[in-house]
Amino acid sequence: MREGSESLLFKEFSNMLENISQTKKRLEIQKILSDYFTRLKKESPQAIVSACYLCLGKFLPDHFNTELGVGETMLIKIISEFTNKSIKSLREEHRKTGDYGVIAAKYRANQLSMFEKKDLSIIQVHEGLKRIAKEAGNKSQISKNRIILSLVSNTEKNETKYIIRILEGKLKIGLALKTVLISLGITFQFDNSIEVIKYAYNCKPVFESLIPLLLNKDTKSLNNLGIEPGIPIKPMLAYPSKNITAAMKKIKGRFVCEYKYDGERAQIHKINDSYFIYSRNSENLTEKYPDLKEGLNLICNNKNNFIVDAEVVAFDLEAKKILPFQILTTRKRKNVSLNEIKITVCVFIFDLLFFEDSLIEKSLEERRSILYNNFKEIEGKFHFVTKKECTTADEIDSFFNKSIEENCEGIMIKNLVDNSEYTPSKRCYSWIKLKKDYLTGMADSFDLIVLGCYYGKGKRTGSFGGFLMGCYNDETEKYETVCKLGTGFDDETLINIYNKLKVLEKVKPKDVIFKEGNEPDLWIDPKVIWEIQAAGMSLSPVYTAGYTSLGNGLSLRFPRFIREREDKSISDSTLSSQVVEMYYNLQESDKEESSGEY
To answer: Which entry of 41, 85, 260, 381 is annotated as an active-site residue?
Structure first.
């Protein structure tokens, strides 16, 4: 490490994280991080890649689906080894603090400092994490233990705290991807830099590709950075609408209606002779669907690499009908062999994103033309989405009713020509969804996060009787409360939920905004997402969703559990801003209904 490269040190990086943890102001956080990136840019520009990953508690792009393989039990043993504290006492302290990083720093044994320490760089820590993840086999835990101890032995207290938190994948300072990308935009200033960087990353979410272009000031390549087979992108999403009239006001020009299938979103990638299936949050699902992989070589008429956007549904081959999503969830996710598959599936393809080259900037009509000219259907296995170009509300209503009869959730309405580009990782008004549930009062369901649990009474004694549900605010990077949920569960579901959630208990969190008197019996690590239906929304003095926009919080009226969404991450859940927007849309559509419109 050359003289004067203090910013490259993990010590400096940890101090920067500590400074961020001391403020709640977004602009201050962005300044602290962008100032740090600026120093790195001058002293060791290549280290920015490592810094970006470590800021997010990661070490590789999401689509690598690589885990460190360092569970809580292993982490406690390692902390016990370098603190000389018993495992029992560490567990007891963790119940109070909920933070192994703080505990490790507090009890860090003096003998770690008996030998001469070598300053760690952020690159060394980043590479160390990758080495830990690579260790596999019978003796992998011994090897992982050795690598971790070698890193920790060269740290001071503050560094110890953050290296342990990184091993847990939780920095606990409210630093999210959005802030990292904005801070990069501030560091590498050029015209519209923040939006260009966000778009480039959404097309190719790999810091190893993004940072060199920024360092070389290659804004042309950044603006033209397209998608690439083998690197999944976050999908484009639709806005919900409560009725046809409201939907038609949003859509401009020619449009097409499609069935909205009740299944699992899937991106299918072809690279030479290999095929990969990815979920909406970049999880590799290829081994979950060996029955699909078997037929993928038959759907395309030529040898071009491609990416298609599709929905996988459970399918009854004899009756030739779509089955409910709950049946699809019973399929194993890993180590699936063809001879043990009991639930058959069918893929409905609705978009083509890459064919020889990126197509996302072309109109939907152009993308569709290339799709239909080069791909073919396979009965009961691969089909094009059922679609119809409509021009009137009556036509849309008829198509909507037909979709419900054929076991779909509803329909999608999409711009066909104007403003019909595919925008990764963004919810756009060029796509509108109309679901059958809008007839019950709400335009859409909510994907909410379980924040806490209330113990049951009466026949629910010994289990959980209710749940505190919340949403994520991506501006403040905090969780906000939305409602207390207690209906929609059968007895078996409640038992499964109890067994799953009781191990996720955590201490009272600092990143949940809630009103006193609304505290659950136990708090839950916010990682479980449930789909919730409601009869309506109202302003609330009890809940905090959207309070920064409205002054008051928002709550759901008569919320009901629909299902767990294992295919969604926190970033895919219903955000606080979306809850507010749905409230305004509901107010507007109520006015339209009172005027007698569709």
So the answer is: 260
